[in-house]
């Protein structure tokens, strides 16, 4: 193996593959793409520890608090909406580089803000990066990973997200004792991982499917020689080329046609269920929820760190199971366990029973259930169910729906807890878990072990 122009090269040019992939190369490029998830998790979760301080600094009501916390998600929705077309035009890799720059600008800007409007403006900028990365990172991994590895490698993106959340929780805990301006350091600290992400992206290539879409067949072959599990690279290239049907773009109207509409709606609804079942009310507001049980600020932050640790461990479980058990079984199991956990937390608040860490235990069970199922599996599912021709645009729309659902949950949580109470808020999320279970039972199709090209026969409605 030789190294040329900063890229790994197998030295093969005969169009044949011995059936062995370059595992180290695949892990490297997938890991770098997944690092976008770490910034995603950090950027969205850092607000959790800052809530008491920004509430006091900016004199926020419960409505404005919901807006301050949830404003990033409007940026996420816009970023997801724009990222598909930009990723098709300029490439997956370049879009991730732009995301790294937006992450850094957001953290530094929010940390330096002296008024709420400026703070929200930088949160929106960070949201653009998060929303774009949430779409482009899984797509990059799905397009570069062999079929039998794809579930695990895309699930690593969710692992990076939850690691980012945990890093944000630790950052909050570390900076919590620095006085009145501690929240500024919490936000500014995300510049460091953003710079690392930017530098790592300089060493990875573009995906072969994007290269083929742009007519750069020779460069695509070079990458496929390192990642393909087929005996003939030429046959794989031909299969990928045929999946684009000699077109390089598709309109929104075509995407909603009879052919693509069923799979698009499945993607949108699964994405929405990942959010409306309540996960980010826990991720963003965990310290606030724990303080309701009567503990102090430091203890609530420490219990929140416990949530971050469980989130990581459960995501590792998902990585181990997603290509063995399959997507559908994990999604159904997750909806069931999350619903039970939310009902238990709701009952604890209804009867004001906070002894023996029972609220913490059921919240940890809820987060573990999410991390091992919906948290990782939804990103895997969205990255693989859409046909090559429409993947970018369809994934943009599904991710847009996900962020809008996230925004709705985040904006309404402080209002719901004030007017309904924490218990009935949890019961509402539990009911949505039950609805998600029924939908996934009837509509979600299993995809494990199939190539991206084979997926088209599973989902498309041929006229």
From TrEMBL:
Gene Ontology cellular component list: plasma membrane
Pfam families recorded: Sugar_tr
SUPFAM superfamilies, A to Z: MFS general substrate transporter
Compartment annotation: Cell membrane
Record field: transmembrane: 25-51, 63-87, 94-112, 118-141, 153-171, 183-204, 263-285, 305-323, 330-354, 360-382, 394-416, 422-442
Bilayer disposition of the protein: Multi-pass membrane protein
GO molecular function: transmembrane transporter activity
Domain of life: Bacteria
The keyword Amino-acid biosynthesis belongs to this UniProt entry's keyword annotation: no
Residue intervals of the Major facilitator superfamily (MFS) profile domain: 29-448
UniProt-listed Gene3D superfamilies: MFS general substrate transporter like domains (1.20.1250.20)
Chief site of localization: membrane
Keyword annotations: Cell membrane, Membrane, Sugar transport, Transmembrane, Transmembrane helix, Transport
Classification via InterPro entries: MFS_dom (IPR020846), MFS_sugar_transport-like (IPR005828), MFS_Sugar_Transporter (IPR050820), MFS_trans_sf (IPR036259), Sugar/inositol_transpt (IPR003663), Sugar_transporter_CS (IPR005829), XylE-like (IPR047984)
KW Cell membrane (keyword) present: yes
Family the UniProt entry places it in: Belongs to the major facilitator superfamily. Sugar transporter (TC 2.A.1.1) family.
Descriptive protein name: Major facilitator superfamily (MFS) profile domain-containing protein
Organism for this UniProt entry: Flavisolibacter tropicus
